[in-house]
Amino acid sequence: MLSLCTFKLNDSEIKLVMPEARFAEPLYTVIDQDRESLARYLPWADAMNSVQDELNFIEFARHQFADRKLFLFVITDNRQPVGMIDLHNVNFDSHSAEVGYWLASSSQGKGIMTNALKQMIINIQPELQLHKITVVADVDNIASRSIPQRLGFTHEAVLKDHIFSNGQYHDADTFIRLFD
Amino acid sequence: MLSLCTFKLNDSEIKLVMPEARFAEPLYTVIDQDRESLARYLPWADAMNSVQDELNFIEFARHQFADRKLFLFVITDNRQPVGMIDLHNVNFDSHSAEVGYWLASSSQGKGIMTNALKQMIINIQPELQLHKITVVADVDNIASRSIPQRLGFTHEAVLKDHIFSNGQYHDADTFIRLFD
Amino acid sequence: MLSLCTFKLNDSEIKLVMPEARFAEPLYTVIDQDRESLARYLPWADAMNSVQDELNFIEFARHQFADRKLFLFVITDNRQPVGMIDLHNVNFDSHSAEVGYWLASSSQGKGIMTNALKQMIINIQPELQLHKITVVADVDNIASRSIPQRLGFTHEAVLKDHIFSNGQYHDADTFIRLFD
Amino acid sequence: MLSLCTFKLNDSEIKLVMPEARFAEPLYTVIDQDRESLARYLPWADAMNSVQDELNFIEFARHQFADRKLFLFVITDNRQPVGMIDLHNVNFDSHSAEVGYWLASSSQGKGIMTNALKQMIINIQPELQLHKITVVADVDNIASRSIPQRLGFTHEAVLKDHIFSNGQYHDADTFIRLFD
Amino acid sequence: MLSLCTFKLNDSEIKLVMPEARFAEPLYTVIDQDRESLARYLPWADAMNSVQDELNFIEFARHQFADRKLFLFVITDNRQPVGMIDLHNVNFDSHSAEVGYWLASSSQGKGIMTNALKQMIINIQPELQLHKITVVADVDNIASRSIPQRLGFTHEAVLKDHIFSNGQYHDADTFIRLFD
Amino acid sequence: MLSLCTFKLNDSEIKLVMPEARFAEPLYTVIDQDRESLARYLPWADAMNSVQDELNFIEFARHQFADRKLFLFVITDNRQPVGMIDLHNVNFDSHSAEVGYWLASSSQGKGIMTNALKQMIINIQPELQLHKITVVADVDNIASRSIPQRLGFTHEAVLKDHIFSNGQYHDADTFIRLFD
C-alpha cells in the first residue's frame, strides 16, 4: 500500500494512500450510506451508483496519477477507507492546484480531514513546487469551509453559482494558501 | 472551413473557425512577431517555438474538440488568421466554462475580440447549456480586461497570483456572466 | 453549432453542421421511420438499431473529422436534423474523395440534397484541394442518381455488384466532377 | 515466418509472407534502386526515404492485419523479399476488396506476380468471403495491367485521373473478378 | 489463412495457423467439452465462458502477434481447429521464450502436439534467434510432460507451486532446449 | 512522495518510493558511473544512455504501476535515489511474482538491499496476495545472490543460460519464498 503520509489521531492511525481496487467496495458502501448528505454539496455523489462505478473511478485516478494530472488519496483510519482527499486542476505553469475532499459522516468531527489536508500539503507541496493551493467549498457547507480556516488559509473570493448539486446552483468560497 | 459564426466589422469579415493544419504557419508567424507582448501575460507564448509546435497544438485542439473538452476557434479576418478564442475548463456538471483569447497586435483596437466573444457566446452558450461563463484576465492587462467589461460581464473576484508569466506571479480578475 | 455552410430554400434554413451528441436521438428516429427505404440501398441502415448506435457513430465521426479522414455533416432544416452528407475515402495523395448522403423521406423532393452537395463542394473542395469528387449511387436508386446529374457531374462508370444491401448485390453508377 | 502460400516457379520458391521487421532493410534497398520506375505509377514510392520509413510501414501493416483492414504480404523468392501484394479497401459489408502490388524490376518477366495474385486469391478469397476483387492499374502501366488480364479478370471501367504520381494525374483501368 | 507450417500425420493435414475470428466458435466448443480436464492443469480454462470470451482472446492474440509479444497459433487438423500452441514470455534480450499448448482430448494420442512443437521450433526459432526454449508442465500432467521429453528437451528444474489451478498449487517441471 | 515503506539503517533513512520524473537525472548519474559493473549482470544497463532514457523508463513504470503489471520502487537514502527494487512478472492467477533490484556501488555493503527486499515483502505481499516470490540472480553475482539467502529464501533451481549480458549467456539461480 503506497502512502503519502501517516499520522496518529487519538487511537487512530490515519494514512493517505494510493487508491487500490480493493477499496472500491468499502468506499462504495460509505458513499451509499452517506449519499444524501454528500449529494447536497458534491455533484458526483448521485452518479456513483455501484461498486463498479467506484472501481472505474479508482482506475481512472490511478492513470491520472501516473500522468501527474490528479493526485488523489484514499484516507484510511486503521486501514479502513473513510474518505478521499486530492489535488486536481494541477497547473505546473502557474504552480497552482485545487484541493477536493470528502469524509464519511461517521468519521467526521475528529479532526481527520483538517490533519489530512495539513499533512497532504506538507508532503506534496514542496515536491510539486506549488505556489498556491486553493480550497473551494460551498458557502453553506460549514464542515467543509471550516477546514481551510482552521489551517490558516486566507479567504480569497466568493464564486457565484460555482457548484451545481441537488438541482440548484450554489455559491462557493475559495480559501488560499501561498508558498514561496 | 467549419465556422461557428461570421460577422462584419467595417470592411472585414470575421469568422470563428475550427483550427486547421494550414493555419499553423500564419499563426506561428503572428505569435513570433508578437512574442514579447503575448508572453507578458500568457504563459504558453514562450513555449511556442516553431510551426511544428503550433501544428501539434492544432491537432491537440481538434481532438479535444471531438471529445468536447476544449472548444477552440481560430479568428480569421478576411480569411487570414489573426488570433484565437476558446472555451476551456468546460464543466458539464456545473454548466460552466472559462474563456481564453489572444489577438495579433496589428488587429487590436478594432473591436474584433469584443465582437468575437459576444458572437461565440451567442452561438455556443445555448448548445452547451452553460449557466456561467468566466473571463480571467491579468489585472494589468488592460486590453484583455476591457473586453468582458464592454460586454457587461460582472467583476467577480481577484485571484491572487493566479498567472505565472514572464518570471513572476500576477493577480487576475475574473469577470462572469450568468445565463438562465 | 459548427457549420460548414448555410443556405435558404423556400422558408427553410438549411445548414451542414458538425455532428453533435444531441442529434443522436432525432437522427435515430428518422432512420427508424425510414428504415425500409434506406436499407434498400444503404448497407448500414439495418445495423443502426438504437440511439446508442447512432451516438457511437457520431462520436466516431467526430474523431475521424479531427483526423481528417471523414468529413461528415448533419443536414439540418430549421435546426432539425433531416439527413447527412459526407466526404469519405478522402485521399490526399490523389486529391480525391467520395460523397455519401441520405435524407429523411419527408424532406425529399425539395432540392435539399442537391443544394447540400453543391454547397458542400463550394465550401470544402478548395480547402481540401480536391481534384476529383465522386458520387457512387445504386443504379436503381433514382433519387440518389439524380443529384449529381442535376449538378452536372459526368457519368464515369458502372461498378458491378458494388453494393450489397437487402440481401443482394447491386451495380452502382459513379458520377464525377474534376477541379483544376 | 507466417506464410499465406508457397509455390514453385522454375528454380524459385515463391512465398507470400507476413511482413517482418527484418524485411525493412532488403525491401528498402529494392525500392531505392527502382525508385524511378516505381514512382512513375505508385504515389508512395517517393515518400519512402529510409529503412526506418519502411520499418514504420511494416509495423503499420502488421497492426492493420491484426485489425483485418489490410492484408499485405511480402513476396519472397528463395527467402529474399522482392515485392509486395496486398488486399486493401476490404469491405466486409459489400464483400469486396482491392488488390495492390509491386515487384522489383530484377524479378519481373518471370510470372512471379501473375502467380502471386492467383495464389493470393485462391488462399484468401474463400476465407474472407469476398464476392468481388478489383485490380486498379494505371492505363499506361502495361506490366501491371497485364497481370489481371492474364488471369481472366474482366475490364470494368476507366477511372478518370484516379492516380496522382510523378506530378500528374493518370487514368486507371479497373479489372474485376466476381465469386459466388 | 496464414500458416507457420503444415505437416502430414497419417491421413491428417496439420497446420499451425494465425488465429482468426471464425475459429472462436469451434475452439470454444472444444474447450467447453474438455473443460474439466483442461481446468485440471490450465488456469485459464475456467475463465473461458463464452464464444465472445474466445473471440476477445483471439483479437488480443492477433495484436500481441503484431507487437511480437506472443506468437500464438491455432492447430488445425484437416482445417478444423483442435488446439493451440504458442511462444510467450518472449525475451529478445536473453533470446528466450516459453512454450504453451493444449489439445482437444479427441485429438490426443496421435502425435499431433509432439509434431506441432517440433515444427513450430523448426520454423520460428531461427527467425526469432532464440537461444533457449522452455516448456513448463505440471508435474502430474503426464501427457504434457511427455511432449518435450520425446523431442529430447533436457529437464532443467522443478518449480515449486508454480501453477494454481483447480483451487490448489501444483509444482511444475521445466524442460529446455538450447540453440547456438 | 508516495512511499511503500520507510526504515532506519544507522544514520540513514531508507524509503521505497514511487518513481518520479525528478529522479531521472540522479538515477542516470548513478547508472552511468556504475555502468561497467551493472552491465556485467543486468542486460538493460547498456541500453540506458541518457537522462531521457531514464525518464522514459520512469514514465513507463508509472503507467505499469497504474495497471498493476509492475511494482517498481526507487530506493532513496536520506532522499537521494540510490537504486531500485521491483516486483515484475506479477501473475495474479498463480499468485506469484519475481523480484528485481540494483544498487549504486557506493551504497552497497550496508544492508540496504537486504532490508529493502524484506520491507517490500512485508508491505506488499499481503496486499497482492502473493503465494510465491522468486529472486533470480546470476550465479556469479555474489552480491545479488546473498540477499535472498540472508532473508531465508530457499534455493529452487539453476536456470541455464537465463541471462544474456556483456555478450554472453549466464546461468541464474532462483531463490523462492512461499506464503500461506
Helices and strands in order, then pairings?
The structure is a homohexamer of 180-residue chains.
Chain A (H helix, E strand, L loop, with lengths): L2 E7 L2 E6 L6 H10 L1 H7 L9 H16 L4 E7 L2 E12 L4 E8 L8 H17 L3 E7 L3 H9 L3 E12 L2 E11 L2
Parallel strand pairs in A: 5-6
Antiparallel strand pairs in A: 1-2, 2-3, 3-4, 4-5, 6-8, 7-8
Helix pairs in contact in A: 1-3
Number of helices of chain A: 5
Enumerate the spans of chain A where pLDDT stays under 50 for 5 or more consecutive residues. none
Helix content of chain A: 25-40%
Which two chains have the most extensive interface, and how many residues on each?
Answer: A-B, 23 and 23 residues
What report would you give on this structure?
6 copies of one chain form a homohexamer. Helices cover 33% and strands 39% of the residues of chain A. Chain A has 180 residues and is of the alpha+beta class. Chain A has a single domain, classed as 3-Layer(aba) Sandwich (Aminopeptidase). Chain A has an 8-stranded mixed β-sheet with strand order 1-2-3-4-5-6-8-7, sandwiched between helices. Chains A, B, C, D, E, F: Residues 25-176 form the N-acetyltransferase domain.
Write a brief structural summary.
Chain A is an alpha+beta fold and 180 residues long. Helix content of chain A is 33%, strand content 39%. The first copy, chain A, has helices at residues 24-33, 35-41, 51-66, 112-128, 142-150, and strands at 3-9, 12-17, 71-77, 80-91, 96-103, 132-138, 154-165, 168-178.
